[in-house]
Amino acid sequence: MHPFPVGTHPGIGTHIHISIDGDESTRDSFLAGIMTRLPALCAFSLPTEDSYERVNGEESEAGLYVAWGTQNRDVPIRKVTAGHWELRCCDGTANMYLVLAAYIASGLHGVETGITLWLKDCSGNPSQGGEEDRWHQLGIKDQLPRTLEESLDALKCCQWGKHDLQQAATRYSQIKTRESHDLGILARQERLRRMIRHF
Predict the structure, then answer these.
(1) What number is the average pLDDT over the span 74-95?
(2) What pLDDT is recorded for position 50?
(3) Which of 6, 15, 35, 199 has its CA 20 to 30 A from that of 111?
(4) pLDDT in tens, 25-56
(5) What is the SS3 assignment for 70?
(6) Half-sphere exposure (CA, 13 Å, Cβ side) for 47?
(7) Domain-by-domain residue ranges, the chain?
(8) Measuring CA to CA, how many Å separate 62 from each of 52, 58, 144?
(9) Is 129 in a helix, a strand, or coil?
């Protein structure tokens, strides 16, 4: 389940499907809540340094930009049908209970506060050059975190409010920061060996 076990492998994702009932406005606000927090949510769904090898502009990976698209596998969130999305920026090293709790809480926050979905449906790969104007017209400008440290920094700025995930998010951030430090002092091959053994 390790996301990048060998240097020649394109990476392994563990994609999650999530769906809700409701009218178009509710569905859009749910998605907007997730998109608003997506960089922070990556701390849960991409929880190791190796996870971020999949955050790139290559086809059918986790994507590089905060974006969504109907049947588009080149962005982090693929719309399958109305109210049904595939979360592509996740891998098998994640704690799926925390991932689902955080994504659902973010979607519910979007519904409860009526967040407007500012990002438009993306039908291509935003990482492809020469189309900057097109991506900006779709509202696509922010990139996903490229390291665990960046996603943890985004998580620390995230307020969870009534959904009562603040304590869990704070503790999780502390654990992952320490884990990242401890693994960071190992030689790459030793770190990789240990992570593959665990996952």
Answers:
(1) 95
(2) 86
(3) 15
(4) 999 999 999 999 999 999 999 999 889 988 98
(5) strand
(6) 23
(7) 16-198
(8) 9, 8, 9
(9) coil
